Predict the structure.
Amino acid sequence: MKKNLEIKFVLSLIFAILVAIFAIQNAVAVEINFLFTRFTISQALIILISAIVGAIVVLLISLMNQISQRKKNRELKKEVERLNEEIEAMQNPKDDLNQDSQLLNKHVHLEKDNYESGENSLKNESDEFESQLNEYLSDGENNDNKGDNKEDGIK
């Protein structure tokens, strides 16, 4: 990069020297018509002024280009940072997903255990209810038989 800049500087100096030599060799007075004015000036001065104005225009254009490139460079660096953060965020959820998966498996096993214990509890309650119902029904039959005996005694 530095060598490239040095080469451009040397070429610019050579070009400036050539323009100066050309202007000095053509130092004849010329009549200039510009808008509504007319004046006589050295042709060498016109060449040098034109070269200087051209150099200033090129300088301004290159500065504007350099400023826009710096701005774009900053924007791209911000975009790279944002994308790197996004990549990191995408890699972290893999770990989070593994943890979530483990927690979910634990939860499923707990729910399964709760279901099985609830199922056993319901079976026990059902068996208990059935035995109470059978007991009640057998007590009812015994009471009916006693009632039949009383009715038989009354008659």
